[in-house]
Structures are given as structure tokens and as C-alpha cells.
């Protein structure tokens, strides 16, 4: 698919068009963000993209939680990438993950990294998760309800 075709079809893209190495979600998201920017699916500077770390407390040394008004950024080769960290105490269950061997797609991760695209025009915010079996990209509300499942009753050690 050419860059112009990517520009015309930002919904339900084939995730295989993007570089993906299993179990390297942070690197995958880094390259995903670069391609979204270069394909003009995202802002050229990535100002509408947010890299979200979903993690447990033991892995939170990566970065601290950032508010929507004071973003910290990591400069890598002159590029700014914005980060948010969501934490829990133990490995976190995420559903609809390709690495799962279960029918429901649930897997326990120590951490997982996704890209969230905030639509400036008031459109639906999108989640770009190369490890998900949900539509790619997926509306944020759908991703949260289907992948994170905040209403799902967990055993106390996973809450």
C-alpha cells in the first residue's frame, strides 16, 4: 500500500502494514508513530499521538504519570514523543491480544504499550495497538471496554 493509500484509509487498516516484533511493544509503537506521522495519518510532528504505558507498579520506573497539560517528552534523534503511564500492582490482564492462547484473547502482561490518537476535529479518539485483535485502529471507548474491561471483576490481587 502506498503512502497516499494510507492517507485515504485511516480506519481499519491492515496492521501487517506496520513493523511488528512480538513482545517488543514499546519499539513497535515508536515505529508505528513514525509511520503514522510520515503517512500523514497523524500530525507530522506527532502532536496528536500519545504513547501510553499500561503497567504494574514494579515496572513504573520507565516514566511518571503525565497530565494532559504538562507533557514530558523523550527526545530521540530530535523527535518528541509524549508518554503517559497507567499502573496497577501486579501483572495486568488485557483481552483481545494476539499473543494469547485462549479463545477470549486474555493475557497477563507486566506492561503493555499502545498509541492513542487524539482527534482535534472532535472525532473519535483512536487506539493503535499492533498486538490487539480488535479493529485497527480501534475507537478508544471500545478499546477500554473490550481490552481493559474496567467493569470486569478481578481477584483482589489483580485489582
Automatic annotation (TrEMBL):
Q: Does the keyword Transmembrane apply?
A: no
Provide the reaction this enzyme catalyses: N-terminal L-glutaminyl-[protein] + H2O = N-terminal L-glutamyl-[protein] + NH4(+)
Read off the Pfam families from this record. Nt_Gln_amidase
Q: Give any Gene Ontology cellular component.
A: cytosol
Q: Which GO terms describe its molecular function?
A: protein-N-terminal asparagine amidohydrolase activity; protein-N-terminal glutamine amidohydrolase activity
The UniProt entry, under InterPro entries, shows:
N_Gln_amidohydro_ab_roll_sf, NTAQ1, Prot_N_Gln_amidohydro_ab_roll
Q: Which Gene3D superfamilies match?
A: Protein N-terminal glutamine amidohydrolase, alpha beta roll (3.10.620.10)
List the EC numbers from the record.
3.5.1.122
Q: Which UniProt keywords apply?
A: Hydrolase
| Start and end residues of each Protein N-terminal glutamine amidohydrolase alpha beta roll domain | 20-67, 90-159
Similarity comment text for this entry: Belongs to the NTAQ1 family.
Q: How does it assemble?
A: Monomer.
What is the stated purpose of this protein?
A: Mediates the side-chain deamidation of N-terminal glutamine residues to glutamate, an important step in N-end rule pathway of protein degradation. Conversion of the resulting N-terminal glutamine to glutamate renders the protein susceptible to arginylation, polyubiquitination and degradation as specified by the N-end rule. Does not act on substrates with internal or C-terminal glutamine and does not act on non-glutamine residues in any position.
Q: What is this protein called?
A: Protein N-terminal glutamine amidohydrolase
Q: Which organism is it from?
A: Gossypium klotzschianum
Amino acid at each position: 500500500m502506498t503512502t497516499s493509500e494510507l492517507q485515504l484509509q485511516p480506519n481499519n487498516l491492515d496492521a501487517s502494514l506496520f513493523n511488528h516484533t512480538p513482545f517488543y511493544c514499546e519499539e513497535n509503537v515508536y515505529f508505528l508513530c513514525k509511520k503514522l506521522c510520515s503517512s500523514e495519518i497523524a500530525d507530522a510532528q506527532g502532536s496528536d499521538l500519545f504513547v501510553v504505558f499500561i503497567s504494574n507498579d514494579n515496572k513504573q520506573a520507565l516514566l511518571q504519570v503525565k497530565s494532559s497539560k504538562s507533557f514530558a517528552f523523550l527526545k530521540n534523534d530530535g523527535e518528541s514523543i509524549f508518554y503517559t503511564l497507567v499502573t496497577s500492582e501486579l501483572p495486568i490482564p488485557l483481552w483481545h491480544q494476539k499473543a494469547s492462547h485462549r479463545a477470549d484473547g486474555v493475557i497477563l502482561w507486566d506492561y503493555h504499550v499502545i498509541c492513542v490518537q487524539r482527534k482535534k476535529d472532535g472525532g473519535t479518539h483512536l487506539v493503535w495497538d499492533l498486538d490487539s485483535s480488535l479493529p485497527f485502529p480501534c475507537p478508544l471507548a471500545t478499546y477500554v471496554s473490550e481490552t481493559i474491561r474496567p467493569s470486569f471483576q478481578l481477584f483482589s490481587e489483580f485489582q
